[in-house]
Amino acid sequence: MILNSACKGLLTILLTASTYVSHAQTNDHILQVPETSSEKQLLSWKKSLPKDGWFILKFKKDGDRLFNYSNKNYELSLWLNCTGTGKPGFLIEYSDSYGDGDYGGIDFISSNVKNGNRIQFLLDAKSYGDPFAKGGDQLAAFKVALKKAHKLTLSVYGKEFNPETGKDEEKLNRSIEFKLAHSELLDRPVNCGK
Q1: Which domains does the chain have, with CATH numbers?
Q2: Model confidence over 5-33: pLDDT tens digits?
Q3: Which of 40, 78, 86, 170 is the most buried (most CB within 10 A)?
Q4: What DSSP letter does each residue of 10-72 carry, written as one string?
Protein backbone atom coordinates (compact mmCIF):
# COMPACT_ATOMS: atom_id res chain seq x y z
CA MET A 1 0.00 0.00 0.00
CA ILE A 2 2.86 2.40 0.83
CA LEU A 3 4.59 1.35 -2.40
CA ASN A 4 1.35 1.98 -4.33
CA SER A 5 1.09 5.50 -2.83
CA ALA A 6 4.74 6.14 -3.69
CA CYS A 7 4.12 5.03 -7.30
CA LYS A 8 1.12 7.36 -7.56
CA GLY A 9 3.19 10.22 -6.15
CA LEU A 10 6.02 9.51 -8.58
CA LEU A 11 3.57 9.34 -11.49
CA THR A 12 2.11 12.70 -10.47
CA ILE A 13 5.58 14.25 -10.30
CA LEU A 14 6.51 12.82 -13.72
CA LEU A 15 3.27 14.07 -15.27
CA THR A 16 3.78 17.51 -13.76
CA ALA A 17 7.39 17.59 -14.99
CA SER A 18 6.33 16.53 -18.49
CA THR A 19 3.73 19.30 -18.48
CA TYR A 20 6.40 21.86 -17.61
CA VAL A 21 8.71 20.47 -20.28
CA SER A 22 5.86 20.71 -22.78
CA HIS A 23 5.33 24.33 -21.76
CA ALA A 24 9.05 25.05 -22.08
CA GLN A 25 9.33 23.46 -25.53
CA THR A 26 6.59 25.64 -27.02
CA ASN A 27 5.00 28.98 -26.41
CA ASP A 28 3.30 28.62 -23.04
CA HIS A 29 -0.08 29.11 -24.76
CA ILE A 30 0.51 26.65 -27.62
CA LEU A 31 0.54 23.15 -26.17
CA GLN A 32 0.89 19.65 -27.58
CA VAL A 33 -1.76 17.27 -26.24
CA PRO A 34 -0.15 14.16 -24.72
CA GLU A 35 -0.98 11.10 -26.80
CA THR A 36 -0.36 8.23 -24.44
CA SER A 37 -1.90 9.38 -21.18
CA SER A 38 -4.63 7.79 -19.12
CA GLU A 39 -7.89 9.64 -18.58
CA LYS A 40 -6.80 10.48 -15.03
CA GLN A 41 -3.48 11.88 -16.29
CA LEU A 42 -5.25 13.96 -18.94
CA LEU A 43 -7.63 15.38 -16.33
CA SER A 44 -4.64 16.36 -14.20
CA TRP A 45 -2.92 17.88 -17.25
CA LYS A 46 -6.10 19.76 -18.17
CA LYS A 47 -6.05 21.52 -14.78
CA SER A 48 -2.67 23.03 -15.69
CA LEU A 49 -3.94 24.66 -18.89
CA PRO A 50 -3.87 28.48 -19.11
CA LYS A 51 -6.75 30.34 -17.45
CA ASP A 52 -5.89 33.88 -18.55
CA GLY A 53 -7.25 33.89 -22.10
CA TRP A 54 -6.66 32.12 -25.42
CA PHE A 55 -4.49 29.05 -25.91
CA ILE A 56 -4.03 26.49 -28.64
CA LEU A 57 -3.99 22.73 -28.19
CA LYS A 58 -2.17 20.78 -30.88
CA PHE A 59 -3.78 17.38 -31.47
CA LYS A 60 -1.82 14.88 -33.55
CA LYS A 61 -4.90 13.59 -35.41
CA ASP A 62 -7.29 16.56 -35.19
CA GLY A 63 -4.95 19.50 -35.79
CA ASP A 64 -4.88 22.71 -33.78
CA ARG A 65 -7.80 23.99 -31.73
CA LEU A 66 -8.27 27.40 -30.05
CA PHE A 67 -9.64 27.42 -26.49
CA ASN A 68 -10.39 29.78 -23.63
CA TYR A 69 -10.72 28.39 -20.06
CA SER A 70 -10.74 31.73 -18.23
CA ASN A 71 -14.29 31.14 -16.97
CA LYS A 72 -14.39 28.66 -14.08
CA ASN A 73 -17.66 27.02 -15.16
CA TYR A 74 -17.47 27.05 -18.96
CA GLU A 75 -14.93 26.26 -21.68
CA LEU A 76 -14.98 28.09 -25.00
CA SER A 77 -13.69 26.67 -28.25
CA LEU A 78 -13.56 29.18 -31.09
CA TRP A 79 -12.65 28.73 -34.71
CA LEU A 80 -12.19 31.83 -36.81
CA ASN A 81 -9.54 30.93 -39.40
CA CYS A 82 -10.24 27.45 -40.73
CA THR A 83 -7.51 25.13 -42.01
CA GLY A 84 -9.90 23.22 -44.25
CA THR A 85 -13.33 23.71 -45.69
CA GLY A 86 -15.02 24.32 -42.34
CA LYS A 87 -16.68 27.58 -41.45
CA PRO A 88 -16.12 29.81 -38.40
CA GLY A 89 -18.00 28.93 -35.24
CA PHE A 90 -17.89 28.34 -31.51
CA LEU A 91 -18.70 25.77 -28.85
CA ILE A 92 -19.29 26.34 -25.14
CA GLU A 93 -19.08 23.32 -22.87
CA TYR A 94 -19.58 22.97 -19.15
CA SER A 95 -16.25 22.68 -17.35
CA ASP A 96 -15.35 20.01 -14.82
CA SER A 97 -15.93 22.67 -12.12
CA TYR A 98 -19.55 23.39 -13.09
CA GLY A 99 -22.14 22.36 -10.49
CA ASP A 100 -21.33 19.03 -8.91
CA GLY A 101 -18.61 18.28 -11.47
CA ASP A 102 -20.62 15.76 -13.51
CA TYR A 103 -21.32 18.17 -16.38
CA GLY A 104 -17.71 18.49 -17.59
CA GLY A 105 -17.49 18.22 -21.37
CA ILE A 106 -21.24 18.44 -22.01
CA ASP A 107 -22.14 20.96 -24.70
CA PHE A 108 -24.07 24.01 -23.50
CA ILE A 109 -24.47 25.96 -26.75
CA SER A 110 -22.70 26.19 -30.10
CA SER A 111 -22.89 27.94 -33.44
CA ASN A 112 -24.45 24.75 -34.82
CA VAL A 113 -26.88 23.89 -32.00
CA LYS A 114 -28.65 26.64 -30.09
CA ASN A 115 -31.66 24.62 -28.84
CA GLY A 116 -34.04 27.50 -29.52
CA ASN A 117 -31.86 29.98 -27.66
CA ARG A 118 -30.53 33.28 -28.96
CA ILE A 119 -26.94 34.26 -28.21
CA GLN A 120 -25.43 37.71 -28.10
CA PHE A 121 -21.67 38.35 -28.19
CA LEU A 122 -20.44 41.48 -26.40
CA LEU A 123 -16.86 42.72 -26.52
CA ASP A 124 -16.11 45.18 -23.72
CA ALA A 125 -19.90 45.72 -23.45
CA LYS A 126 -20.41 46.45 -27.20
CA SER A 127 -22.87 44.07 -28.86
CA TYR A 128 -22.01 42.15 -32.03
CA GLY A 129 -25.21 40.12 -32.00
CA ASP A 130 -24.49 36.58 -33.14
CA PRO A 131 -21.60 37.02 -35.59
CA PHE A 132 -21.83 33.33 -36.54
CA ALA A 133 -25.51 33.44 -37.56
CA LYS A 134 -26.37 32.52 -41.13
CA GLY A 135 -26.56 35.59 -43.30
CA GLY A 136 -24.96 37.72 -40.60
CA ASP A 137 -22.52 40.41 -41.65
CA GLN A 138 -20.93 41.04 -38.25
CA LEU A 139 -18.18 38.39 -38.39
CA ALA A 140 -15.47 40.55 -39.99
CA ALA A 141 -16.04 43.42 -37.55
CA PHE A 142 -16.26 40.96 -34.64
CA LYS A 143 -12.89 39.37 -35.55
CA VAL A 144 -11.16 42.77 -35.64
CA ALA A 145 -12.72 43.91 -32.35
CA LEU A 146 -12.01 40.57 -30.64
CA LYS A 147 -8.26 41.11 -31.08
CA LYS A 148 -8.44 44.44 -29.22
CA ALA A 149 -11.03 43.63 -26.53
CA HIS A 150 -10.35 42.71 -22.91
CA LYS A 151 -13.58 40.89 -22.07
CA LEU A 152 -15.99 38.70 -24.04
CA THR A 153 -19.49 38.28 -22.64
CA LEU A 154 -21.82 35.70 -24.14
CA SER A 155 -25.44 36.34 -23.19
CA VAL A 156 -27.81 33.44 -23.79
CA TYR A 157 -31.54 34.15 -24.08
CA GLY A 158 -34.32 31.57 -24.00
CA LYS A 159 -38.10 31.62 -24.16
CA GLU A 160 -40.07 31.49 -20.94
CA PHE A 161 -43.83 31.46 -20.45
CA ASN A 162 -45.16 34.65 -18.84
CA PRO A 163 -48.41 33.85 -16.99
CA GLU A 164 -49.38 37.53 -16.95
CA THR A 165 -49.34 37.87 -20.74
CA GLY A 166 -50.04 34.22 -21.59
CA LYS A 167 -47.14 34.27 -24.07
CA ASP A 168 -43.62 32.94 -24.36
CA GLU A 169 -41.21 35.81 -23.90
CA GLU A 170 -37.49 36.09 -24.35
CA LYS A 171 -35.57 36.11 -21.08
CA LEU A 172 -31.86 36.17 -20.23
CA ASN A 173 -30.82 32.65 -19.20
CA ARG A 174 -27.22 33.52 -18.30
CA SER A 175 -24.22 35.63 -19.24
CA ILE A 176 -20.79 34.03 -19.45
CA GLU A 177 -17.59 36.10 -19.36
CA PHE A 178 -14.13 35.25 -20.69
CA LYS A 179 -10.80 37.08 -20.44
CA LEU A 180 -9.12 37.76 -23.78
CA ALA A 181 -5.35 37.70 -23.20
CA HIS A 182 -3.09 36.36 -26.00
CA SER A 183 -5.21 37.64 -28.88
CA GLU A 184 -2.30 37.03 -31.28
CA LEU A 185 -3.44 33.39 -31.30
CA LEU A 186 -6.72 34.38 -32.98
CA ASP A 187 -4.91 34.73 -36.32
CA ARG A 188 -3.64 31.14 -36.32
CA PRO A 189 -5.45 28.68 -38.60
CA VAL A 190 -7.28 25.99 -36.61
CA ASN A 191 -9.39 22.92 -37.24
CA CYS A 192 -12.96 24.15 -37.54
CA GLY A 193 -15.74 22.29 -35.82
CA LYS A 194 -16.08 19.98 -32.88
Answers
A1: 49-187 (2.60.40)
A2: 444 543 444 444 444 443 443 478 998 88
A3: 78
A4: HHHHHHHHHHHHHHHHS-TTEEEPPSS--HHHHHHHHHTS--SBEEEEEETTTEEEEEE--SS
